[in-house]
Amino acid sequence: QVKLVELGGGLVQAGGSLRLSCATSGRTFMDYHMGWFRQAPGKEREFVAGITWTGLNTYYGDSVKGRFTISRDDGKNTVYLQMNSLKPEDTAIYYCTAVGSQKNYGLEYRRADAYDYWGQGTQVSVSS
Question: What is the CB neighbour count within 10 angstroms for residue 68?
Answer without folding.
Answer: 22
